[in-house]
Write a sequence for this structure.
């Protein structure tokens, strides 16, 4: 099927979801019963962005003697989400397919797609919702609106800062600490990595404040504020007690498999419309939903042709 048809199908599904939440059976009639609804289940949502090169034709006249008119190649960030089910121990249920999609049309568009996906599976009736991300502002600044639009259960939504991204920011602080040898900085970092998992967020932040001193440089202040801003999302001790995952590896894997291995490469430049369609199709096949997606999309095309 053509990518344009796939995008048209996605837009029609998005239009329906924007006006009303259709019955799950109408949206997913060809899926196994255990995938029809996320009612009463634990779901995890992970979001992140990648990089691809877009090809934009140059304007004006072609340079004399040039065989081709030429083009600009600019990096753009495709944004992806992946949704999957968790078992009681906080591990991903490998025997049940989740959902994945992405877009080059910006974070608001991605949130529209995510809301449509959540509504089609009755995520508002989920037992628990875990949102995992790396602390990027384009994600965190939209989570309250996402929860409201998808009617996610109040009090059962947990926003988690990816632990490994938090450790990267700790490493930046360790490298910038004044009056410490490389060995002392390394020992401080190893201790803080453990404290991050075992101590309360306020205790961790107090230790960071003592380490950077009263007059930290701009870089240290920025890294310190990163932890202050994400105070509630670094409560890893409580997350462990609740069997909530603390890593966003699922979406990191999606970025690698969907984007890096096929849409990003040396000498690879995409027209925007082609990249959008291919990104959408590849999300379906790599999430294990290709056959059910293809049947639904072809049914939509057949109805419109009729």
């Amino acid at each position: 099927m053509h990518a344009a048809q796939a995008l048209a199908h996605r837009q029609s599904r998005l239009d329906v979801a924007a006006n009303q939440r259709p019955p799950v059976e109408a949206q997913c009639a060809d899926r196994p019963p255990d995938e029809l609804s996320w009612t009463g289940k634990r779901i995890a949502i992970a979001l992140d962005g990648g990089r691809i090169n877009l090809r934009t034709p140059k304007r004006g006249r072609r340079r004399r003697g040039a065989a081709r008119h030429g083009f600009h190649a600019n990096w753009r960030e495709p944004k992806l989400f992946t949704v999957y089910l968790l078992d009681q121990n906080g591990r991903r249920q490998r025997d049940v397919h989740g959902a994945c999609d992405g877009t080059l049309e910006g974070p608001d568009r991605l949130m529209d797609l995510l809301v449509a996906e959540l509504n089609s599976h009755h995520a508002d009736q989920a037992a628990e919702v875990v949102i995992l991300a790396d602390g990027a502002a384009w994600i965190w600044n939209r989570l309250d609106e996402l929860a409201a639009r998808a009617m996610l259960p109040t009090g059962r939504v947990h926003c988690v800062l990816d632990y490994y991204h938090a450790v990267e920011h700790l490493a930046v602080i360790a490298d910038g600490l004044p009056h410490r040898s490389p060995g002392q900085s390394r020992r401080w970092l190893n201790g803080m990595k453990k404290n991050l998992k075992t101590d309360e967020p306020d205790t961790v932040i107090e230790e960071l404040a003592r380490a950077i001193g009263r007059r930290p440089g701009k870089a240290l202040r920025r890294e310190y504020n990163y932890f202050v801003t994400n105070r509630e999302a670094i409560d890893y001790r409580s997350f462990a007690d609740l069997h909530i995952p603390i890593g966003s590896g699922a979406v990191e894997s999606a970025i690698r498999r969907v984007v890096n291995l096929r849409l990003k490469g040396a000498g690879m430049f995409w027209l925007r419309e082609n990249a959008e369609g291919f990104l959408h199709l590849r999300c379906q096949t790599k999430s294990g939903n290709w056959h059910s997606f293809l049947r639904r999309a072809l049914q939509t095309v057949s109805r419109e042709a009729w």
Observations:
- Strands lie at 42-49, 52-57, 71-76, 79-86, 99-103, 128-133, 157-161.
- The domain at 31-57+71-162+247-289 is CATH 3.30.420.10 (Nucleotidyltransferase; domain 5).
